[in-house]
Write a structure and sequence with these properties.
The structure holds two protein chains of two kinds. Helix content of chain A is 0%, strand content 59%. By secondary structure, chain A is mostly beta strands. In chain A, strands 2, 4, 5, 9, 10 and 11 form a six-stranded mixed beta sheet that branches. By secondary structure, chain B is an all-beta fold. Chain B is built from no helices and eleven strands. In chain B, strands 2, 4, 5, 6, 9, 10 and 11 form a seven-stranded mixed beta sheet that branches. In chain B, strands 1-3-8-7 form a four-stranded antiparallel beta sheet, with no helix packed on it. In chain B, a hairpin with a 6-residue loop joins strand 9 and strand 10. The radius of gyration of chain B is 13 Å and the shape is globular. The chains are: A mainly beta, B mainly beta. Chain A binds chain B through residues 34, 36, 41-46, 49, 87, 89, 95-103, and chain B through 4, 31, 33, 35, 41-45, 48, 50, 55-56, 89, 91, 93, 95, 98-106, 108.
Amino acid sequence: EDQVTQSPEALRLQEGESSSLNCSYTVSGLRGLFWYRQDPGKGPEFLFTLYSAGEEKEKERLKATLTKKESFLHITAPKPEDSATYLCAVESGGSYIPTFGRGTSLIVHP
Amino acid sequence: EPEVTQTPSHQVTQMGQEVILRCVPISNHLYFYWYRQILGQKVEFLVSFYNNEISEKSEIFDDQFSVERPDGSNFTLKIRSTKLEDSAMYFCASRAESEKLFFGSGTQLSVL
């Protein structure tokens, strides 16, 4: 069974204070690892897909990296509008069913 | 950008009543999903649908649940006899071949 553990559960940052979110996973053959952003009362919004160890993707202040056991979402100089819950999900083998972690709730104070 | 549309945004029902949650996936997508999220908990998979039939379902998706694609555009989730523990946000999602999921904004179901 695929497992995804995200840490920390919650993170408070000052505007401009860079940090990283962690996603540890256990799968039988990773097909893809996904990062989503979820705002309160909304559906998850896609950010990145990573497929193999060593891969990196960037979008504005966000950068996602992948190893064989975990992924990091680095947030550089965050702004208050980056406040959201960040979800990690994995798909394994021939499955097209993403399994989600519990997420990291990020609050960025001005 | 195309989007997944869900209706209603909020649904309040009495325990034991039937509810139907509706979704319009993105038109050229092939895979359709229902997920749910109980307040403060993680997004949980319920069921996936491909080629007009269920492709996978979770343990949560018991005989009280059913899905349909009645007219080639809509995708519905029916709960036959709601329970208190069915209260959650229900998300519909769709995807093209092996790509990212697009989620709707969800239906908040409250069972009283």
